[in-house]
Amino acid sequence: MTPNDPDEWLDRSLEAIARAPLGPVVRRSGRVERVSDGVAMVSGLPEARAGERLVFEGGQSGFVHVLDEETLAAVLLDDIAGVAQGDAVTGTGDVMRVPVGPELLGRIVDPLGRPLDGLGPITTSAKHPVERPAPAIIDRAAVVEPMQTGTLVVDALFALGRGQRELIVGDRATGKTTIALDTILNQKDGDVTSVYVAIGQKTSSVERVIETLRRNGALARTIVVVAGPSTPPGMQWLAPFAGMTMAEELRDTGGHALIVLDDLTRHAASHRELALLTRQTPGREAYPGDIFYLHARLLERAARLSDALGSGTLTALPIAETDAGNLAAFIPTNLISITDGQIALDAKLFNRGQKPAVDVGTSVSRVGGKTQARSLRDAAESMRLDYAQFLELEIFTRFGGMPDTRVKAQLARGRAVRAVLAQIQHAPLRLADEVALVLAVQTGLLDGLEPAQIDALRAALPDALDAAGLSGADFSATLSEGLHDQIVQCLKGLLPEPEK
Question: Is 284 an active-site residue?
Fold first, then answer.
């Protein structure tokens, strides 16, 4: 046969037809009725479901947010400039999914898993829905393992556990992100991998966080999800759910994960914006009525799984912003009732130089001592009560009262506690350092010392513990009398010489 032989052409064509998949193909298509402010009203998709992923004519993505009788409201996840009235919209029949897996560690991505760090594409083996049901009660186990934050005031007074949900709440610029970031830094040499989700944060703030992670060697074990203030509101709405899905994969494969949601106040604002644009009925402070359920179903996904499911844990540190310290505002109140406690930061303490500015009177951990490292629990048994009494006595003595010897001793002990609880940012403490500092306070070794002297002791303490071979002791067990005495002797060697 020649190359142009009709019989040869017919044989090739018949083979191609035989290889071609034959069958009906269903393609559901609608039209954009109007579009504005990141929301498109679409008609012609009567079978669309809430949360379904849509593809617009120009290739943009979106998802169904509100269903009405004649139209649906689709939230756009890409630039609105490419979407116009009359454009075709295709339903995919699937929900929004994001890539998951260890390939994302060390990368900076948007809520759709697309890289933002210029390090090339990310190839993962799976994509999971951004909205997933929380683990059932029978699939959960008790929270009993400590989550060391490296921040002494938290670990000693408000211990966190792996699988816990602890809210960090306070006014703007009071150190909320710093506490969460130090917790991530404290995991760099452990078995916990982290996910940091920036929701509507300033670009400069996110860059500082990323640089801090990179400089301290923690970025390689962290996934950074960024939805900046200039991104569409749909991306900011999607960000915490996408980050939670990425963190769940780390937990469900038997690992331990930590997720920081910075912050849910801005996420609530984006939800309110979308609700008002889609004409949902506003409620208190113009938030739609489902705002509580929105955050509840998000945070309920953090848990410790049962042994049958691998015993993985996912710890959540959501952040919320208050106005003038008003914890009774709508969003903080909701989140306080959803989570297992809150670390409340006080602007007055921050402005007086007490950092971290944790308000020990309004902060609480509802898991607490059940997860605290046993040695630290033994050392700090009465520390919170002593400090609370000191704060009350300090206020009383400001009115000119003449304290007796016992009260003077309490004031000296309280000032030592306050000095020890102060901590510079991005310098998390080891468990051994925390136990030693608490023992230094509780045994009265720091009574009467100036803050500068306490700072010098703190700086020299890690090397001294290492030199004495104490940093490798098992601090997860009860603090034995022998270990207690060894640490005290080590501390005494760091005290300044008494004046003659």
Answer: no
